[in-house]
Amino acid sequence: MKNQDETIGWSRTEMAWRAAQDIPDSTYVNLGVGMPVMVAQYIPKDREVIYHTENGLLGMGPVPPKESIDLELINAGNEPVTALPGSCYFHQGDSFAMIRGGHIDICVLGAMQVAENGDLANWSTGVPGTVPSVGGAMDLVAGVKRIFVITQHCTKFKEPKLLQECSYPLTGKKVVSRVYTDLAVIDVIDKGFKLVELAPGITFDYVQSKTGATIHQ
Amino acid sequence: MKNQDETIGWSRTEMAWRAAQDIPDSTYVNLGVGMPVMVAQYIPKDREVIYHTENGLLGMGPVPPKESIDLELINAGNEPVTALPGSCYFHQGDSFAMIRGGHIDICVLGAMQVAENGDLANWSTGVPGTVPSVGGAMDLVAGVKRIFVITQHCTKFKEPKLLQECSYPLTGKKVVSRVYTDLAVIDVIDKGFKLVELAPGITFDYVQSKTGATIHQ
Amino acid sequence: MIDKRVASLEAAVSGIVDGATIMIGGFAAAGSPVELIHALIDQGSTNLIIVNNNTGSGHIGMAALIENDRVKKIITSYPRTANSVVFPEYYKDGKIELEIVPQGTLAERIRAGGAGIPAFYTPTAVGTPLGEGKEVRSFDGKEYILEYGITADFALIKCKTSDRYGNLLFDKTGRNFGPIMAMAAKTTCAQTSEMVELGEIDPEHVVTPGIFVNRVVTVPKPVHESVYIEQGRVYP
Amino acid sequence: MIDKRVASLEAAVSGIVDGATIMIGGFAAAGSPVELIHALIDQGSTNLIIVNNNTGSGHIGMAALIENDRVKKIITSYPRTANSVVFPEYYKDGKIELEIVPQGTLAERIRAGGAGIPAFYTPTAVGTPLGEGKEVRSFDGKEYILEYGITADFALIKCKTSDRYGNLLFDKTGRNFGPIMAMAAKTTCAQTSEMVELGEIDPEHVVTPGIFVNRVVTVPKPVHESVYIEQGRVYP
Q: Which ranges in chain D belong to alpha helices (H)?
């Protein structure tokens, strides 16, 4: 079997596409910085999804062409965006009331580590001296109804990111519902990780070998 | 000396006028139902005061003529009012954030009883079987910077309303700054009641005789 | 497609079960969703716990809900309003439970419920009968009491303008409890005077974002409580 | 007469003393009151405690405030932004204190400070390093931590439109922390792009009521942080 570096399994866009298939129609969704943002491009056309960005916009649209960038209209990743018809602006108190109050249906986030009990670490490696920056990540995982993680199955040093326990500082305890990796889609259920789907050409044993905890079939 | 029923001292309008003289320019003021509302009519013309009504309007204006009454534009006393230029509407969470957060400068309220330590009772006689109704009174006294009380000096049964201790259920503890009655203006200071001003023709001894606690001169 | 519009008042209140907690907007008659309340009476659910700032006037709207024996308990700040003839009788006869809450504490409890805050400390009611039995705690030498967030199964509110996403604009002081109740209920049902196309409401002007709203029914000419009262109307 | 207008940026920031706590609006560069921050640098006060969601970019605005050695401590959710070159150096060298707070907890603490709520419970950060050492309490079987309201001596915020009462409208996602910081500061100073007559702002559209605002200075064409950064500008 080929090495992960040789792009077996799903590519980044395929991962985003796969996650997008699980976003139901008529939902409110918050997408984290990086790969999560790509998910929006692959939502099936017959579904209407409203995007929340925690800096204060509901109804966020795609990045505008350069000539129509408005510097006061950005997303939580500090990128220029647009506001679609039916959108609205609000302040940070209200924005996090939406999050903490359980009004957002799905949040898709990146991860450094996910534990089999759903613990998530995605904000800090805990290395002394680095500047810790949390942003809205802890609020999102504490408040949004379902947390999807989208991440490479292993780190660039080929270490598993899906583990029995996170070694990095936690973002939240028992918060992750489902993980989309380049190798598989995996749910977090009461007894641990459970396989939902394998990427084309990937075997269960291979996924298990790249995972730091048992995957239930 | 004449009996209180024979209208010695200040009339109701004079009491309202007297209180109005103590409302400084450029203040945010909340006026309770009844006599307190009358205060607005007597603010010196060179002062600009913005009225807050806790049901959700800042910049409240006077009662409109009948033909221009809008049933969705009322004050906290359920009376039709107007909205002046520069006014704004807000919801109850924000309205009481203004109150509780100490953003309102002065509130003028009626009273059943005021104690010499500033305790106020103005929402319930505590008689069993009556329907208790508090509205925003407890929030106002807990949050507004200065609480003025405007009230007849005695009840209609000629019992003193200014007392050593309130016998009725409290609205708030140590909240009243100043009291305007038909007989006098009285401050609440650390050691108790203190005379500020006597109504025309009223003696200190007379006021003291109608008061259930010592008035300091 | 995200479409919060429902075709009828009946559809707006469907699914409310006996014993449900229902927040109902309005301060006195302003903002009171009279048509939705009447639809709730028609719908028939009972043993309701109602959160409303008042108890209604005359024999219509909120008062009619009580008079039709649907309300087990009311959480309110000011039950003793003008023309409140039904509630005092029910209260005197022990036919309704009353939880009296200072208006600002009621508002903050609703807002907290909607914002995922289970409890908070407030200076309101400290040292009064409404603070009795509550946890007291000092911060910076001043006393506060602990109050709890409230949530509800349904909210019935009245607004002026909506789009199909459920973005809402309100009408003057009729706004009152609408926006915070919308946040605090699992299912928020709004009656609106007008329904506009997406994009017609300026995103800077939206008062209640559609995320807090589940059903919107258009009632083009809502009748104000006071009009029914003048007519001596009794519902149903 | 109620008139919150001040004639200059200098007047807007006058009276800020050494050691003051100052809330500064903005999320990344959107809504950042660059001109007011520069006026604060000119004004000279030091040992400041700053509440800001980020730590600034390049060598202007928020970053320049740090680089001019005015900031003793910063309370923030996300210090590690793009082009944040000043803060990391100061942090590494132990020249600035950092209190890191989840963004929603930061927002709620500010809102609580402005609303007279001394403390509240939140689910955010439970079981994480940012929840460590904090009081934990269960409500309905779920754990929450106690967080405290924050107030400030001054708030510096940026808006789009104001009238002389200080009623404010904001510009898109530049709104972010402005409205809640305005509530939480003793003296709130807003820079506005335009000043309009009383009554020109629809009372239904006001975002920040003037009661939360003390001083408004008109900066007709505010310069966006990114423009200064492209120019390689260093303040002063």
A: 9-12, 34-43, 61-67, 86-92, 103-115, 178-184, 225-230
Cβ proximity of C106 and C99 under 8 Å: no
Q: What is the pLDDT of residues A77-135, one digit of tens each?
A: 999 999 999 999 999 999 999 999 999 999 999 999 999 999 999 999 888 878 889 99
Q: Are strands B106-109 and B27-31 parallel, antiparallel or unpaired?
A: parallel
User: CB neighbours (10 Å) of residue B135?
Assistant: 27
User: Who contacts B27 (Cβ-Cβ below 8 Å, separation ≥6)?
Assistant: B49, B50, B105, B106
Contact between C28 and C195 under an 8 Å Cβ cutoff? The reply is: no
**Least CA distance to B102: which residue of chain C?**
C123
DSSP codes, B23-84:
S-TTEEEEE-TTHHHHGGGGS-TT--EEEEETTTEEEEEPPPPGGG--TT-B-TTS-B-EEE
Give the H/E segment covering residue C11.
helix C9-12
Q: Are C75 and C51 in contact (CB under 8 A)?
A: yes
CA distances (Å), origin D206, targets C211, D66, D199: 21, 33, 11
Which CATH superfamily does the domain covering A12-216 fall into?
A: Glutaconate Coenzyme A-transferase (3.40.1080.10)
What is the C-alpha separation between B11 and C87, in angstroms, rounded? 36
CB A207 within 8 A of CB A215: yes
Which residue of B lies nearest to D118 if distances are taken between CA atoms?
Answer: B101
Ordered domains of chain D (ranges, CATH): 9-119+150-222 (3.40.1080.10)
Is the omega angle on the peptide bond into residue C203 within 30 degrees of 0, that is, cis? no
Using a CB-CB cut-off of 8 Å, the residues of chain D touching C170 are 204
- Yes or no, beta carbons of C173 and B129 under 8 Å apart: no
Q: For D15-35, what is each residue's pLDDT tens digit?
A: 999 999 999 999 999 999 999
Distance, in Å, from the CA atom of A181 to the CA atom of A201, rounded to the nearest integer, reads 14
pTM for the model: 0.97
Here the tokens at position A213 are 């905890």
B79: amino acid identity, one letter: E
Query: Residues B120-137: pLDDT tens digits?
Result: 999 998 888 788 899 999
For residue D119, give the nearest of C112, C139, C202 by CB distance.
C139
Phi-psi region of B117 (alpha: psi -120 to 50; beta: other; left: phi over 0): alpha
Q: How far apart are CA A191 and CA A169, in angstroms?
A: 23
Q: If DSSP codes are grouped into helix, strand and coil, which group holds residue C37?
A: helix
CB neighbour class for D173 (10 Å; exposed up to 12, middle 13-18, buried from 19): buried
